[in-house]
Specification:
Blueprint (H helix, E strand, L loop, with lengths): L7 E3 L4 E3 L22 H17 L23
Length: 79
C-alpha cells in the first residue's frame, strides 16, 4: 500500500479520519499531532519571505521592460 496523508481529528476518545479511506486491520500508521494553529509556521515563513523581498527591492527600484534587455534568451518561451 502506498503512503498517503489523511486529515483526522481526535474526538476525546478516538482518532477519527476526516475523509473516508479503506484501511486493512493492523495497518501501520504514523500520527503527527499538529499545533492548535497549524498555519502559524506557514504564516511565519510568508512574513520572513516578504521581509526579504522588501529588503531586496527598494521603493525607488526602476521598472524594467522588455526593451531594456541587452541580449534575448533564445530558450525563453514567451507566453
Amino acid at each position: 500500500m502506498p503512503s498517503v496523508t489523511l486529515r483526522a481529528h481526535f474526538n476525546g476518545t478516538h482518532v477519527i479520519l476526516d475523509e473516508s479511506y479503506s484501511l486493512e486491520p493492523n495497518t501501520k500508521l504514523l500520527v503527527t499531532v499538529l499545533s492548535e494553529d497549524e498555519n502559524a509556521e506557514r504564516k511565519d515563513w510568508l512574513q520572513f519571505s516578504s521581509e526579504g523581498l522588501e529588503n531586496a527591492y527598494g521603493d525607488d527600484e526602476p521598472e524594467y521592460t522588455y526593451t531594456d534587455l541587452i541580449e534575448e534568451n533564445p530558450s525563453y518561451e514567451r507566453r
